[in-house]
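Many groups now describe folds with learned vocabularies. In that spirit, our science desk offers one protein's residues alongside their backbone shape tokens.
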Amino acid sequence: MLSREEIAKMNTYGQFKQKMHLDMTFDKSMLKVLAFMVAAILIIYTLCLQTPECKILFYLILYLGFTILYIKDRTQVEIDSHMIIIHRPIFNPIIINKKDITKIQINKNTNFSFHRIQFIFLIALIVALAYNSFYDLLNGIKLTVTMASSLILILHESWIIFMLIIIILNISKRIPYQNLVIVNTEKSNFIFYSKQPEELKRIIETQET
């Protein structure tokens, strides 16, 4: 069941608001981030990749893109009697009119076991990469002459590890949920990760007549 504070909030303001992770099909925001990263990298590669400054900028764009994808996942879901509003950092909110919902159902999280295996595999991979990168950094820094060269080496050796950490953090947020609330519309499908899927489904189905 919902907490007393959440129930009181719904009774007072007629709406539900909670931090909640979700997935959706046709997520244009992710495509925008990837398009930005690809465009920026291509521009740098074409103009000045051989200079130390551009090499540093190249890796910083990679780190920025992965960070944005992580921050984007910190969503807050607001539900009233007419619509569902998905608030996302950086990006515009997504509004789902309840009249556009074609189906609401609770399904087993079929990726539950897969996510656990994936999580363990990625942890092992990060440990192996970190071990190799540590010795590569020690040997490489001894040969570098400038601070810029050392920074480029550090960024180069750690960007894959950084990306994998972002993936692990996003997976870890979904592992605890064995049941999912799936909301289908004509344009897209949404998967909500909630600790009270039955209660969330009931709230979504509630509409003013």
Observations:
- The beta strands are 16-19, 21-24, 76-79, 83-87, 94-97, 101-108, 179-185, 189-193.
- The helical segments are 4-13, 28-48, 52-72, 112-143, 147-172, 197-205.
- Residues 127 and 199 are 40 Å apart (CA to CA).
